[in-house]
Amino acid sequence: MSPDTQPRIGLFFGSSTGNTRRIAKMIKKRYDDATMAAALNVNKATPELVASYDYLILGTPTLGEGDLPGLDTDCQQSSWAEFLPQLKDVDFTGKTVALYGLGDQEKYAENFVDALGMLYEFVSARGARVVGFWPSDGYDFIASKAEEDGEFVGLVLDQDNQKQLSDDRLETWLRLIASEFGLQDS
After folding, report:
1. Annotation: CATH topology of 9-179
2. Strand order through the sheet with 147-148
3. pTM assigned to the model
4. What is the pLDDT of residues 18-37, one digit of tens each?
């Protein structure tokens, strides 16, 4: 795909059970191919592909005791744990990044969506402008690396305990980030 025909927004995710992938596909359904690339698992991505986008949406679940998904957390395939080191030399300066994370606030209340916080720290340290912070009220957890000043660093979905809220949360969040991505609020 030539640079002048590349979609404006790259959509990348890591997944273990498929929930994060399903959310990525729900996001993609709302945009045409000129606006957003197809959702791509990071185990099929390259640092060059990620670096080629000025606008990115990145998604991750939190596994176990607050870990990024990857081979060490019993994922069937490589994921963020293996891909982030490949991105260490990518300069995110000038890039606008929105993040979403999945977690279980009841079973893992002490490290709820920690992987989202790790992803945020990684891209922020490399110059990204992160948008789409999300209120942490409405969730019941003890601690999270993804919370700053009463807000999560991205959209948080709990498909285990609050699945019924996910569609509305996703719609609201996509409207929230639309202007940051130069999109019409639909």
Report:
1. Rossmann fold (3.40.50)
2. 134-135, 151-152, 147-148
3. 0.94
4. 899 999 999 999 999 999 99
